[in-house]
Amino acid sequence: MCYHISLAAGAEELARRFDRKTDLIRKFRPAYHVCAFSHLPYPVVTRDEQIQYFRWGLIPYWIGKAAQTVTVRNQTVIARAETIFENASFRVPIRRRRCLIPVSGFFGWRHGQAQKTPYYVTVRDRPIVALAGVFDCWIDRESDEVVMTYSVITTEANPMMRHINNRDCRMPVILQDGDEECWLHPDLSEGQIAALLKPYPEQAMDCEPAQPDFMRKVPGDPGILMPA
């Protein structure tokens, strides 16, 4: 799956990369390790002119009570491309609320008989890429708090990612540069959306073993990305 990502870029770099304003995230600094289940604010790109902070783990708009959100968001950090149009949590967002999740790379684990080895995966010649995502807006009926959340979409793994993620054989959907704004277009048909949910070509990707203790380091430590 894709539960651990990295973004080695600050607000100014994101503004240039996605041609958006960053007034709402101006203090954002590189986050070399972000875990899905921390649900921390993370910069997300939509059709809006501003890059905004959303939290990882989509809370569907129809969830009634705040107590339910804790369980729900841990179950929705990932959306599977094969079932996204039928899944109750995602069938509206995939049609109406698509987003880009900027990353420099992501982490995966190869499972052996006795231990698992972490790898850091990047896209060749693309320092910042966009993962395909969906988002939703949930309003707490008691406090009126507005909570914006997102999910990363995964698809079947390419051969390189099957070697790394050898347990579930999945990878995040990485969009080509030319497909990013298309992904955000509100008038895409279901077929056009599905056509973009494909594995990224392995020949354009790189990977290297990551440090076994990278998850114990503070997110702002660039040493996280030092190869093992």
From TrEMBL:
Question: Would I find Membrane among this entry's keywords?
Answer: no
Q: Which Gene3D superfamilies match?
A: SOS response associated peptidase-like
What's in the keyword line of the UniProt record?
Covalent protein-DNA linkage, DNA damage, DNA-binding, Hydrolase, Lyase, Protease
Which domain of life, per UniProt? Answer: Bacteria
Q: What GO molecular functions are on record for this protein? A: lyase activity; peptidase activity; single-stranded DNA binding
Q: Which SUPFAM superfamilies match?
A: BB1717-like
A GO BP annotation: protein-DNA covalent cross-linking repair
Q: Looking at the keywords, is Lyase present?
A: yes
Q: Which InterPro entries match?
A: SRAP, SRAP-like
A Pfam family in this protein?
SRAP
UniProt-listed Enzyme Commission number(s):
3.4.-.-
Q: Family assignment?
A: Belongs to the SOS response-associated peptidase family.
What is the name of the protein in this document?
Abasic site processing protein
The protein's organism comes out as: Alistipes onderdonkii
